[in-house]
């Protein structure tokens, strides 16, 4: 999963089993386009917190990409294996919510400048635990 | 080890040395600290000392037995005479001069330092601390015990201070200082006046498990502790050693924050090394220092330091931003972007520790966990602006929750006042577990104004929680609120604050259960067994019945204290703090009959009136008020105690037949409520008077029953909320605990 701020550079990227970092980087970046598309499509000042979408389901790669946008235009992108059929929408939503909460906690830290890469250990732990749960 | 032949002189000498080192009088083992000291006093290079120790087997054994000690001493002699260290040399070298140890008053210091260093070494991360403390230790020791030491330490300080014009030099001077002392040829042998430091050292010697050998090299390596320098430069003040000397005085004098901090750090380090098992404990001096620093930023000890101010403050420590960020994460327990006093102390402590070389923990150590209660209270208050001005007294907290109560809104303010009156002492002991607090915080933040905090304490009393009161307030109920049986949700608020002393706001969101569990015994006497709600006061006293709509199953109204005048029945919903038992008793006595008594509107009016009247009344007052109210209503003259289920809609006609039944009970009730003024009167009068009193009592019962039912309803709601919160907690647990 990774998160991007407004300018679409990644603040944080973490992947679990396969560690195909590069591939995920690519996937995530491409998914950003879709996310942006959705955001602009929503218009109406909709502060839709969770836009859960199933995109980029490549037949070969066979994984799903979920997106989530916060009010401050920070995007969370999560890539999951399609083989993980058990992942339900609710779970994804809850995971995004947790991510969002953790991100908020990081924001509360006065030493953190928004736009920096995220180095928080607590955040890392949280993300790791979440991913462990899924994988 | 190999056999060791010692000459007589050697034997005597070694024996003396051994007994000197045998601080614990074990006659078998020489304390490692002393031994190390001794070796240092031998003025041998560190590696030689290590070699000696290895050869004699101490490192293998982990301690210095007598034989090891003797061997070591012999090897020292060998080394001092310039011979290579060999095991064979133990016995082959004859005419070996006795090992020389520099024994001077300074040895004490060096000894201490050695001890410190060795102790400090044990925790690897503490190694950085060693260098500074020695200097400090000497200083400290001086202040602690020997005059000689003191003189020396002051001398040390002066020495260290003079060269240290810039902060950075101070650390290095410390170790140099003691080394200097060490070299003073004192000649003597063991007769070191251990004295003072004895007990002081004991922990040190114990703390070091034979890693003394390692301490030596580490020690020397750390001569100029970078941390110290940083620390000192942080303060940009005179050398810390000087500070140490005057420790308390310097603390005051120092204007810069860090100066004091360094002194505090030193103490802290010292203490830490001495209490290795809890390196994160904050000593009193440190704490005082932290508090002073807190005051410079935020005069109100119960207030917050905003993030930006804290950022500036801690940036002065010159720690890397990443570490500061991590420290913040650890110490900002409630994740609100501001530091309370406890959080600030924890953060400061971590900074100090980090500057002295300790690694930052992954999670906040136990001893640094903020004490939630008081702080939380202030925090809560601050956070929940909506909450009626909760003052520090928890009692008030509940009232503030009242706003959530629809119908009780108006009564809430009143209740608040009443709760204020009760002046529940902010329970210091109440301690919410950090997780609980955190949960509460999170709950607050995330659940919004959802006051679904079931309060476990509520369970304690089976009062009818007024629906309005919902849980949130009740969350804080703890068993402590025994009196507040009839705490309605509002009560729970009050009790919560009392118990948890905080967060009125939190009450809402907290799953009352968790906090309560961890909270220390219920706060000191709930000021009022009377609830904060005036009506509850009333109720408590007079009724113990929980009037009001009784929920289904009038739950066994515990035969409440009858003496409660019935009037308090309605007891404003929020006020329901009825001592359940009392109220219930009354009700039960009257047999939980269908007592719709009055139509709903009547109930409300009753309650409202009750609430209004109840506000800061004592029992009698409320009771009287209630009675007035009741009588004023007169709608349910002989309504039997309200049934658990609200039956407001029941016509009065229905009541009548019940009333008849009730009358019988009324008689009982009357007996119960003997204290009621009306009763005695009626008793003494003729039948008419009796009936009138009976009527009044019944009305009271009705009100109480209604109240009871309402409270029970609230209780249920609160419980539901609690359950939901617990579920949420469970969901979050895996993440929060990782």
Automatic annotation (TrEMBL), chain A:
SUPFAM superfamilies, sorted: SNARE-like (SSF64356)
Protein name: Trafficking protein particle complex subunit 2-like protein
Residues annotated as transmembrane: none
Signal peptide per UniProt: none
GO biological process terms on file: endoplasmic reticulum to Golgi vesicle-mediated transport
GO cellular component: endoplasmic reticulum; Golgi apparatus; perinuclear region of cytoplasm
Keywords: Cytoplasm, Endoplasmic reticulum, ER-Golgi transport, Golgi apparatus, Transport
InterPro entries: Longin-like_dom_sf, Sedlin, TRAPPC2L
Family to which this protein belongs: Belongs to the TRAPP small subunits family. Sedlin subfamily.
A Pfam entry, by short name: Sedlin_N
Species for this entry: Columba livia (Rock dove)
């Amino acid at each position: 999963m990774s998160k991007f701020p407004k300018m679409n550079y990644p603040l944080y990227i973490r992947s679990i089993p396969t560690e195909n970092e590069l591939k995920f980087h690519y996937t995530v970046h491409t998914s950003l386009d879709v996310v942006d598309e959705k955001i602009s499509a929503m218009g109406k000042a909709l502060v839709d917190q969770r836009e859960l979408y199933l995109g980029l389901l490549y037949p070969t790669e066979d994984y799903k990409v979920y997106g989530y946008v916060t009010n401050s235009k920070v995007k969370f992108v999560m890539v999951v294996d399609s083989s993980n059929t058990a992942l339900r929408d609710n779970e994804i939503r809850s995971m995004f919510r947790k991510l969002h909460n953790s991100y908020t906690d990081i924001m509360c830290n006065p030493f953190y400048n928004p736009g920096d890469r995220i180095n928080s250990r607590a955040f890392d732990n949280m993300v790791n635990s979440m991913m462990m749960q899924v994988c | 080890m190999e056999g060791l032949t010692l000459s007589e002189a050697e034997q005597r000498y070694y024996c003396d040395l051994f007994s000197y080192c045998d601080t614990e009088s074990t006659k078998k083992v020489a304390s490692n600290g002393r031994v190390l000291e001794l070796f240092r006093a031998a003025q041998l290079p560190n590696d030689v000392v290590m070699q000696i120790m290895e050869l004699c087997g101490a490192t293998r054994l982990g301690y210095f037995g007598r034989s090891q000690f003797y061997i070591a001493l012999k090897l020292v002699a060998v080394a001092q005479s310039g011979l290579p260290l060999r095991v064979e040399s133990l016995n082959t070298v004859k005419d070996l001069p006795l090992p020389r140890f520099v024994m001077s008053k300074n040895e004490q210091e060096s000894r201490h330092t050695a001890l410190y260093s060795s102790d400090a070494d044990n925790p690897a991360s503490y190694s950085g601390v060693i260098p500074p403390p020695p200097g400090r230790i000497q200083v400290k020791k001086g202040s602690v015990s020997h005059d000689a030491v003191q003189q020396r330490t002051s001398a040390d300080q002066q020495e260290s201070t003079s060269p240290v014009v810039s902060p950075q030099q101070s650390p290095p001077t410390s170790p140099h200082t003691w080394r200097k002392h060490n070299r003073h040829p004192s000649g003597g042998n063991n007769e070191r006046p251990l004295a003072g430091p004895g007990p002081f050292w004991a922990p040190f010697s114990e703390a070091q498990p034979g890693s003394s050998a390692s301490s030596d090299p580490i020690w020397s390596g750390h001569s100029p502790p970078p941390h110290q320098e940083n620390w000192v430069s942080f303060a940009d003040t005179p050398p810390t050693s000087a500070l140490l000397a005057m420790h308390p005085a310097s603390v005051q004098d120092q204007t810069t924050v860090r100066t004091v901090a360094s002194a505090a750090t030193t103490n802290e380090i010292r203490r830490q090394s001495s209490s290795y098992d809890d390196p994160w404990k904050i000593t009193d001096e440190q704490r005082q220092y932290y508090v002073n620093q807190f005051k410079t930023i935020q005069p109100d000890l119960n207030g917050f330091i905003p993030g930006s101010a804290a950022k500036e403050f801690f940036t002065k420590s010159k720690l890397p931003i990443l570490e500061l960020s991590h420290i913040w994460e650890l110490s900002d327990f409630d994740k609100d972007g501001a530091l309370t006093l406890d959080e600030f102390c924890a953060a400061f402590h971590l900074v100090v520790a980090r500057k002295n070389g300790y690694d930052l923990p992954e999670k906040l150590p136990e001893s640094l966990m903020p004490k939630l209660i008081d702080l939380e209270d202030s925090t809560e208050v601050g956070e929940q602006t909506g909450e009626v001005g909760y003052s520090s007294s928890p009692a008030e907290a509940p009232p503030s929750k009242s706003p959530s109560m629809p119908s009780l809104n108006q009564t809430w303010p009143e209740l608040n006042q009443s709760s204020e009156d009760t002046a529940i002492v902010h329970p210091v002991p109440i301690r919410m577990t950090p997780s609980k607090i955190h949960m509460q915080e999170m709950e607050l933040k995330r659940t919004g104004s959802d006051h679904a905090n079931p309060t476990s304490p509520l369970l304690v009393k089976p009062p009818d929680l007024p629906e309005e009161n919902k849980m949130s307030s009740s969350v804080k109920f703890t068993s402590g609120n025994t009196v507040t049986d009839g705490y309605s949700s509002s009560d729970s608020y009050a009790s919560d604050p009392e118990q948890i002393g905080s967060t009125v706001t939190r009450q809402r969101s907290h799953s009352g259960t968790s906090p309560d569990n961890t909270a220390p015994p219920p706060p000191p006497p709930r000021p009022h067994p009377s609830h904060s709600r005036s009506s509850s006061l009333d109720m408590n006293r007079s009724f113990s019945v929980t009037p009001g709509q009784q929920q289904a199953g009038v739950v066994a109204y515990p035969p409440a204290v009858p003496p409660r005048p019935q009037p308090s029945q309605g007891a404003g919903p929020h006020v329901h703090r009825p001592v359940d038992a009392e109220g219930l008793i009354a009700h039960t006595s009257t047999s939980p009959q269908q007592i719709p008594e009055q139509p709903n509107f009547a109930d409300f009016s009753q309650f409202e009136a009750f609430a209004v009247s109840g506000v800061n009344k004592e029992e009698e007052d409320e009771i009287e008020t209630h009675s007035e109210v009741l009588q004023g209503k007169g709608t349910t003259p002989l309504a039997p105690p309200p049934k658990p289920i609200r039956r407001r809609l029941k016509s009065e006609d229905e009541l009548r037949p019940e009333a008849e039944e009730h009358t019988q009970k009324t008689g009982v009730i009357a007996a119960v409520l003997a204290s009621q003024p009306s009763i005695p009167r009626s008793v003494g009068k003729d039948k008419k008077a009796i009936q009138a009193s009976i009527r009044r009592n019944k009305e009271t019962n009705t009100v109480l029953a209604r109240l009871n039912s309402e409270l029970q309803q609230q209780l249920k709601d609160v419980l539901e909320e609690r359950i939901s919160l617990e579920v949420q907690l469970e969901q979050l647990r895996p993440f929060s605990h990782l």
